[in-house]
Amino acid sequence: MYEEDRSKYFDELEEQRISYEEKIKKIEEERDLWKSEALKWQERAHKLEEEIEALRKELSSGVVPVSPKGLELFTREMSTPKQSLYECILYAFEPQLLENYLYVKRGIKSLRKLVSHFILKEPSLFKKEDLDGKIPEEYIKIVEDDNHPGGKAELLAFSHFYKCGIWKIESDRDNFVTEYIARGKYERMIFLIQSKQKGENKFSLMVGTHSRDKNPREDIRCFSTADNYVRNKVFNIIQESRLELENFFTMSGE
């Protein structure tokens, strides 16, 4: 009798063990299923984070998606030739500073210091001809002179600092020369038009708008480097303006 009871007891224990193992196996299978689903959702969440970050980067970069429909391109003129390059850069990247003359003055001074900093700290960015044949220590003294209008070295420094390609378009009665200034691959670009005014170089900024009254607050200042439509349209507008100027001088006999 004792042996039978003992055998029955161990059989019951074995049945319970098997029952528990089956339950554990079933729970483990369900757990693994949820883990797999969780991993999928985690991967999806990670992709969404990347999309959000890309959109934030695009928004902060100032690149506005441009629709050709209704887009008008025109130049924003700056106040004084000798400061016009710096004013264009402020208008393109620091427009909030243009609301107050004192801020503009400080902004231009800060930009000059920025250029000097990059010339000294990143000399490999600049070729000798970019510095008008001078060594960096000599050129920065010229940069900090308020009468210095700026040139290739300044544009390289601004391009590097603002992570933006710069199209410099030299256009006057006799010339039409385009130059893309950048030491890296950037997602945005601006257009600077260089002309002569009383023998001095003057810069203006090409902007876009969908606003009928050309409200400066709605200006599109930076464009995507992939936007060939805008680039070609800018070149065509400047070419047409140059030809009109040439025809004017021809008709006036100058």
Structure keywords:
254 residues; alpha+beta; Cathepsin B, Chain A; 2 domains; 6-stranded mixed beta sheet; elongated
Order of helices and strands: HEHHHHEEEEEH
CATH second-level architecture of the largest domain: Alpha-Beta Complex
Shape: elongated
Query: Could you give a short account of the major beta sheet?
Result: 6 strands, mixed
| Helical run tally | 6
Number of strands: 6
| Structural class label | alpha+beta
Helix content: 40-55%
Looking at the structure, the CATH topology of the largest domain is Cathepsin B, Chain A
What secondary-structure arrangement, pairings included, does this model have?
Elements: H1 2-61, E1 72-76, H2 84-93, H3 101-121, H4 136-143, H5 152-162, E2 165-171, E3 176-181, E4 188-197, E5 200-209, E6 223-224, H6 228-252
Parallel strand pairs: 2-4
Antiparallel strand pairs: 1-5, 2-3, 4-5, 4-6
Helix pairs in contact: 3-4, 3-5
Summarize the structure.
The chain has about 250 residues and is α+β, with helices and mostly antiparallel strands.
Question: Can you walk me through this structure?
Answer:
With 254 residues, this protein is an alpha+beta fold. It has 2 domains: 1-61; 66-252, Alpha-Beta Complex (Cathepsin B, Chain A), CATH 3.90.70. It has 6 helices and 6 strands; from the N terminus they run αβααααβββββα. Strands 1, 2, 3, 4, 5 and 6 form a 6-stranded mixed beta sheet that branches. A hairpin with a 2-residue loop joins β4 (188-197) and β5 (200-209). Residues 248-253 have low confidence and may be disordered.
